[in-house]
Predict the structure.
Amino acid sequence: MWAYYSNSHKGVCLEYDLTQLQSDNFYENNLKRSIQEVVYTNQFNLSNIHNPALNFQKSNQWLHEQECRIICETNEEFISFPCLKAIYVGVNASSDTRSTFINLADKYDLEIYLGKVNTEAFQVEFIDFKNYRYNHQIETLKKRFNLPL
């Protein structure tokens, strides 16, 4: 999905706490949000294009995405989602993008993972940046004060 929706790993992916999102009490400022898993099919009933079920349907060719969608009933331009859990930053994100989202993760106490290519396994791995930063600081302090590694 990174190639389709994140400009070839230059963007970010946001992870939400689905248990919180799926609760019946997920309202904020009287704004109801509904979350559903996408139904993958090759048989679309387009006789009523205003059917809300069409918002949650996609062709079978996208089955590998295992997507959920959130629909909000509002005319607002900005909608807050207090259920945000983690940020995944793409492998090809600019340093400005990385810095911006690292700062946001720190500010809002969110998990943040930075994409890294594993050339041996030919796959992308996501490194827990806060854990990495903490361990790196410990290593630096140990070396600086000549403590046992």
In short: The first strand starts at residue 12 and ends at 16. DSSP finds four helices and nine strands in the chain. The beta strands are 12-16, 27-28, 31-37, 39-41, 57-59, 68-72, 84-89, 111-118, 123-128. The mean pLDDT is 79.
